[in-house]
Write a structure and sequence with these properties.
Distance between the termini: 37 Å
Structural class: mainly alpha
Shape: globular
Largest sheet: 2 strands, antiparallel
Number of domains: 1
CATH topology: c-terminal domain of poly(a) binding protein
Order of helices and strands: HHHHEE
Helix content: 55-70%
């Protein structure tokens, strides 16, 4: 079904499926996070729709990116972990 529409329409369709999933995790930031994730390749977006774990990981990275913009995120090189406080 996705292959029969333009890339922009594919993004729209994927966004419409991702948004409610993200909204259930972070209601106030769902639009912003969905927009950030739609910059990712469509094959990865499809994988996120199929894998809740993958989606949660990408949402977490997006939250950290948003927090970093507010200077509320640090990165520990020793443990390879992000420590974030979502805005």
């Amino acid at each position: 079904m996705l292959s029969s529409v333009s890339v922009q329409e594919q993004k729209q369709m994927l966004g419409e499926r991702l948004f409610p999933l993200i909204q259930s995790m972070h209601r106030d930031l769902a639009g912003k996070i969905t927009g950030m994730l739609l910059e990712i390749d469509n094959s990865e977006l499809i994988h996120m729709l199929e894998s809740g774990e993958s989606l949660r990981a990408k949402v977490s990275v997006s939250l950290c990116s948003l927090a970093a913009r507010s200077h509320r995120c640090s990165y520990s090189n020793n443990s390879n972990k992000h420590i974030c406080i979502a805005p």
